[in-house]
Amino acid sequence: MADLLTAEAVRDELGGLTGWSGDGTGISRTVELTSFPAAIAVVDRVAGTAEELDHHPDIDIRWRTLTFRCVTHSAGGVTHRDVNLARRIDEIIRGAQ
What we know:
Family: Belongs to the pterin-4-alpha-carbinolamine dehydratase family.
Largest sheet: 4 strands, antiparallel
Organism: Micromonospora vulcania
Order of helices and strands: HEEHEEH
EC number: 4.2.1.96
Number of helices: 3
Low-confidence stretches: none
Strand content: 15-25%
Number of strands: 4
Keywords: Lyase
Oligomer: single chain
């Protein structure tokens, strides 16, 4: 099982991510894309990355607004797996804007 990050470690990690917030129970980011198809394309790329990492975010789709939430459910909170996934999501979002 992955080790949980402390609240302080989560805060430190969030400082290196774009637009993410949260605490030891989960981290999230909301982003607005230019169109619904652009948003769905980002979701598709994130899905591929999630499969590659075998770690899947919760994704809320509202027209062209996406909210990603990362938490390692099996560990009961945020781990390095969530931070790594968040970094990859950031890269995908940067490439879409």
